[in-house]
Amino acid sequence: MKFTLIIGDEQETRDFPDETTIKRVLEDMDFPLETVVVKKNGQIVLEEEIIADGDVIEVIKVIYGG
Amino acid sequence: MKTCTKCGAPEVIIEKKHSGQRLCQDCFIQGTQQKVLKDIRKYKLIDKGDKVLMALSGGKDSVMVLDILNSLYERNIIEMTAVTIDEGIKGYREDGVRIAEDHAKRLGIEHNLVTFKDSFDTTLDDIMTSSSQRGACTYCGVFRRWILNREARDVGATKIATGHNLDDETQAILMNYLEGNIENLTRIGPKTVSRSEKFTVKIKPLREIPEKEVALYVLARELEVHFAGCPYSQESFRGEVGQFIKQLSQNHPTIMYSTLRGFDKLKPVIKKEFTKEFNMGKCTRCGEPSAHELCRACIFCIEINE
Fold it and tell me: Which of A6, B112, B166, B287 lies at 20 to 30 Å from A42 by C-alpha?
């Protein structure tokens, strides 16, 4: 299963097993969940959302230290 | 499938761990706006006819306050004006200034840009690259308060609204407690009233809204904001305390609310025991209110020029 991952100005295609959640992808990348909001195909979604083939996942870092 | 606990819609954008509530985009926006307006009434933050000066950085917090207070401005309940402070942080502040200007223009709100350079003949970058004796946040906080207060008087504002959120407030409570700054704790709250008439009342309409929900609100409302971290913030003790609370909140989702509620219960006692009695005079250098011969901004200016 392939999907597009966008973080800031970076965009890449990722390959993951079926039934993968956004949370799992973020955890694999050591991305703290409490600091981001995620959009799937342009809509804000929960991190538990399952990614489907061809989805565009955008991770928006919204909380910075300090 | 998880659905909105208010309307049953299937597209849920938030699950609030502390309350178990799940909300769709529309219910989240509406519920958040109602909560902020309710807090404004509960804590008597705004009176009809107030002229509110919005401290508008262009970041998520101040843009959200602007968006909600605009509903009062549109109904002629309040007058509103905005100010953006440019501290002189290269590569960081420029986007925020543009976004702040765009929002003020879009809403037809008077907007002023005030720089550290014009006010103090220096920038935060210059201070930090020269022989700074203190942390960046110390200079920045003192200089920003000085500008905000003067601007409020210049535009005839009766309230200054800031974007402090629940995370900011619990950080302030904890860091002042950990550092033993008990007198500072007496000044934390939804509304700060000084005994000097030359200090304008400050209000924090987002004091009970978690930072993550502020971010979610501006994204759900499709408001343009400047999402970036101040390059100096990582150096601060506040940053460390903030990380600690965020980690703790993972397994204890109500911890920020309970910190705030506990503090609010203690505050009358702290205020009674620890409020310092002093005569508020005038700074002999700049004329701003000060308990001493010189205000802190002028003390810093003199230090920097030495």
Answer: B166
